[in-house]
Amino acid sequence: MASTVLDRLIGWVNPRAGLDRVQARTAMDMIRTYEAARPRRSDDGWITPSTGPNVEVASSIVVMRNQARQMVRDNPFAKRIIDVLQSSVIGTGIVSQPNSGNEKLDDAIQKIWAAWANTTKCDADGRTNLYGLQALCGSALHEAGEVLIRFRWRNKADTRKHRLPVPLQLQVIEADYLDHTMNETSLANGNFIVQGVEFDKRGRRVAYHIFTEHPGEYYRTGMAGVKPIRISASDIVHLYEVKRPGQVRGVTCLHAAILPLRDLQDYHGALLLKAKIEACFTAFVRGTGSSSPLGNDAGSDRSGSRIETLEPGQINYLNGAEAVEFANPSNSDAHALLSKTFLRALGVATGPTYDQISGDLEGANYSSLRAGKIEFRRIVEQKQWSLIIPTLCEPIWDAFVRAGAMHGLWDNDECPAEHTPPAHEMIDPGKDIAATVASVRGGLKSWPQAVREQGYNPKTMAKNIAEYNTLIDKLGLVLDTDPRKTSRTGQAQKHSGDAESPPAEE
Fold first, then answer.
1. What is the pTM of this model?
2. Percent of the chain clearing pLDDT 90 (strictly above)
3. CB under 8 Å to 4, separation ≥6 — which residues?
4. Which terminal residue of the chain, N or C, has fewer Cβ atoms less than 10 Å from its own Cβ?
């Protein structure tokens, strides 16, 4: 704490007063500190290390990844979370279209792109199309925290043999292939490696060290595993969400939900066991005698052995058979409330709403669903435009354009593209469409923007509308869905040169 001129002056005139003044100011500064930073007895055992992002991830990446996968395999709520995120962020696929400004070039690229992206020609495994690969990447991203896509460039012979539109295919690789144990502070060329990712002196990614086989495929690799190979960073797309600046590897989106998921799973298991035990006790027959009306000794079977197992509907004889008491299993609404609390916590930790995770729509209405979906859509759109499109879609598009130029299909090896994510489902189509129309008519959004929100490309839609309008006019058809001919109420629209048409209705 720096002393002021007044402090020094008072200390020179009256040292005792000056010391009291400094002590008082120090006490005030202590009072003004953050309450959360002050030590408390209840915080004993709370470890808050100041580790860097990569040290933090390195110690947890494998454990959390395996735990998340186990949860997705066995826990219905974990699987539902991943399915909701994948279907919302990727859905039917993010569509890319050329937008170079050269219509002839755009048409040529679009034709080849459709032949490549819409078929299994783009998949190195030959199993699915580009949008299936996007879905696979989306699932791996949210479940494991990261996924790799390798560009597999094909020579002319392979291109002809497999009839590829361009000499390029994509290979999706799990994060396990990237050797997280490889760390080098300084290589001979001055580069360094962090968790399998190699950087140059300026901190730019130059290579990835990837296993040739999955380290967990013991039937192929053996227990000794395999050695990684060095692959240029220009041939790798590393898809993961950066949570801290400088973070090299990704972590599962379930990282904050693993413990609640496990607790919820254990809680439901305990409740189920409790219910099964209570269901086994139907009635208790009490008495003072030693005989049983059924001919069995109390607490034993026909062979005289003590009964140690429980069966549904079991009647238990206790010291004879004079009085019957029926079991009254306990029941509490607290169980449902606690489960809802857990599920809401899972939604807070991962993004999807409570109703999306649980499937419970009891008490839901338009307002509550809309409020929840709006917030979730912000999360989805952030992932689409800040992660999926720039990190996945654009690199794949650029590689495709380069591959076409290499193949002599066009001259330019660069061409900008427009990317259109799938549309969000409308909660109330009547209200949502009316609001969209009002926004466009009021100038709050453009028609192309409204079209993109529905998951369509405006240029393609405009061409389709013009094409079918020409066809309809040629055939002499008048449809009540054609705004050129009819109003919203179905009345004929007035056109210039058509004096007999009634005025258009608003």
1. 0.79
2. 46
3. none
4. C
